Amino acid sequence: MNDPISIFWFRRDLRLDDNVGLYKALKAERPVMPIFIFDSEILDKLPKDDARVSFIHDTLQAMRQTLQDQYGSSLAIFHGKPIDIFKTLVKDYDIAAVYTNRDYEPYARTRDSEIEALLTEHAIAFHTFKDQVIFEKDEVVKKDGDPYVVYTPYMRTWKDTFKTIDFTIYNTEDALDNLVAHSRLPNLSLSDIGFERSSQKIHPYDVSPTLIKEYEDTRNFPAQEATSRLGPHLRFGTVSVRKMMQKAMAEENETFWQELIWREFFMQILWHFPKTKDKSFKSKYDRIEWRNDEDDFKKWCEGKTGYPLVDAGMRQLNETGFMHNRVRMLVGSFLCKHLLIDWRWGESYFAEKLHDYEMASNVGNWQWVAGSGVDAAPYFRIFNPTTQIDKFDKNRAYIKKWVPEFDTEQYPEKMVDHKVARERCLETYKTALNQ
Strand, helix or coil at 409? Predict the structure, then answer.
């Protein structure tokens, strides 16, 4: 391959259909070599049987096979620091341009700036595109240009803006004949990157008309299999957000549609306020004197708090990498309010365990339950983990599934009394916020 080529760099867009950056690369004049980099900066922090890495690897191998079988091309897979990989690529290939889709997390923005600087040194164009969201950065803002920090007005403006755009699906598969004719590009096994296959599986998503139609009525009850499981697929881009929006609109389900808008709300918050990844949006909340008791945190992690709905949620997370959204709110509130443990501890634990972990949504939701974030629950809103059972798991089906010793002598005593914990929380927060 001595002739100039373009590179398309897959990141959070692991699909061959409706992929904006890939489409733009394929429609340009040069043949395209697709690549993926297992980023050691990210992987080195993960457990060696991480289900997300297995999922990414399996997805890449399926894409690679499709490209080999149907197009006489392939997908080059590398492992290391992206900047080092690109230094090698620049030496090994005559590269005219690099195409990729934008990533909005703080680390990704720094990484991409470094890559762009390197490519510029070599007179190589770096083209980035919006793909994982409908609206990005400052496309949905107030009239004065300031970002929204409350969801409802953001959502209304989002919908009004959506009516004005040319909503396009990019038929990437129609242009895949412009790939490099090379079916033996570099490949890596899981063991090559230092990982082993996880026993956990990432579930297929369900956006059937029935699920979307009944979403409002069923989504709050964790014993029912009534959630779409879209999270990991949106996170890694194995589905197109544009096609998911199409589905939501086709079924005319406002609630399902608005859940997708929440995702974009938190993404633009992280874009405008990158400090929120580890600092409270409302800075005075960083004055809270957290107890941060390590034994209490361990009990919470293991699902041994003595509060069955909290424990069921944590055990579901530990065993499957998934936790029902309604239960996520409860376990988060319990950690911050009942145990007075810093939301950042919980956020880090979810980052390690959740298959659908996405920094913007995870940080946004943890700060919501802690009271420190945008549009957050007021600090004095403290979920009662016992009355929540009657609201959302009345027959104890979810609890019995994940806490088999529930209602027996083997089940642990409550680690803290609800009333005592509530009063302690209110006093601690008041002291911090009134300084």
Answer: coil
How far does Cα 3 stand from its chain's mean position?
Answer: 38
Domain end residue (candidates: 228, 246, 272): 272
Cα-Cα-Cα-Cα torsion 93, 116, 264, 28, nearest 10 degrees, comes to: -50
Q: Is 260 annotated as a binding residue?
A: yes
- E-assigned strands of 11-131? 32-39, 76-80, 95-101, 125-129
- CA atoms in the 13 A half-sphere facing the CB of 160: 10
Domain of 118, in residue numbers = 1-130
Tell whether residue 215 is among the known ligand binding residues.
Answer: yes
Question: Is the Cβ–Cβ distance between 167 and 161 less than 8 Å?
Answer: no
**Tally of domains within the chain:** 3
Nearest C-alpha neighbor of 158 from the set 146, 140, 143: 140
* Domain identity same for 37 and 101: yes
265 is an annotated ligand-binding site residue: yes
Residue with tokens 């945008």: 374
Is position 266 annotated in a ligand binding site? yes
195 is in an annotated binding site: no
Tell whether pTM > 0.85. Answer: yes
pLDDT, block means (10 residues), the chain with 435 residues = 89 98 96 98 95 98 97 97 98 97 96 98 98 96 96 96 92 94 94 97 85 65 74 96 88 81 95 96 95 98 98 97 92 97 98 96 95 84 92 92 95 96 96 88
Helix or strand holding residue 53 (H, E):
helix 51-71
| 263 annotated as ligand-binding | yes
CA angle in degrees (0–180, nearest 5) for 277-116-185:
100
